[in-house]
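Form P-L/3: holo structure prediction, ligand zinc ion.
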Amino acid sequence: MRPRRLRTVFGLTLLTVFQLAVSQLSVSQLTAEVRTLTILHTNDLHSRLTPLANHHGGFANLATVIRDQQKGCTDCILLNAGDLAQGSPVSTIYKAAPVFEIANLFGFDAFTLGNHDFDYGWQQTRNFIQMSKYPMVSANVVDAQNHTLTPQPWLILKVNGLRVGIIGAMTDNLRYLTTTALLGEWHTTPVVETVRRYVTELRPQTDLIVVLAHIGPEEEKAFLAEPNVPVIVSGHLHNGMDHAQTTPDHILVRVKGYGEQLGRLELKVDTATKSVTSFTWKPILIDADTTKPAPDVAALVKVWEDKVAEVVDHPLATAKRQLPKAEVRTLLEQAMIQASGADFAFMNSGGVRDILPQGQLLVRHVWNIMPFDNRVSWGVFKGRDLPDIIKKDRQIDPEKDYKLAVPDFVAANQEAPDTLHTKGLKFEGDSGLLRDALETLIRNRKVIE
Ligand SMILES: [Zn+2]
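OUTPUT (holo model):
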């Protein structure tokens, strides 16, 4: 009896599977096909309107390369993975509004916010969203009532017969990367879980899901293990990649920041499985020496650069060699000590935004290094109360008073990964703008060895 029943059940199961397979086959034969999609992408442009010291980038050059890539392309979309704001005098002086105006000429198909897009306060972020002629999506930046700051958490782009769902995502570290004063009630909900919820909602309505993310390395890893997220276009890290990061089910791409590169990801998408069957990816260098700047973008860049030239294009000193960011960090610490008369200073490495180039130094170079309006904050603490990161290899008398200077951002974010790893220290002194302190230091030295 028992074996027979088992056989019957087994037979039924086989039959069911067979019928199912046939029905799926006929459905997929009717509708399934492989279609192509090309994703052009940028991240962390950081308001670098003009080319860098290494002759890469510049918004007008980037526009030319984007338009060249789009020529004759019927399956191209253009995405930006956040942090358009902050990084140059035009951004600092005009709170990035001109940069978003210029970026309208790029014609992004979708844009997600980065942490620095909050640097001028959330009200200005809202202005950016309203000014932008392209859609902004950010699924997990929400207020107390769980409303998203962007009008929509995701959107569906129709391109080459494909329905491409784009979900915006912000790093959970947002709270450490800005201040509560700038964020107001806006905060992130857990990025992976939030995106997962929207994937469930979007998958039936789309042929491919793309997560457009401004996230850190650990979060990139998490998305590379997340089901039904075949494509991740990432930003926040500025270092770019030689090859796409992949798993059998995922492709993650990101290019260098500051407009040095444009990414081009070509995909073959199977609409039946909603997955990628093959792809190629390359970062394209934006070479200012060989690219003809796009006239419309160049004209608008010139309008704004001319306005700030009076403030920033003054000779300051000479540098005998190029100083990498690690050495610029030391210069900033020396500048804080000089400005405040502190015993020690601490500079967060993430706050150093540029190298110091070799040759003639302009005030502009100081702005590029320190575009933030960070102030020099200081406090007086007993040796025993100093954070370990300050004590490390120094001879500290636990009973003695020491004056410690830090950027006000660090004072407000003492627990953040890149800062003091402590809490509760009161920095009540103020010695003016950190940028001014660095400018004074470099001006007084005349020659940087
Ligand atoms: Zn960022």
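COMMENT: The CA atoms of residues 383 and 395 lie 10 Å apart.
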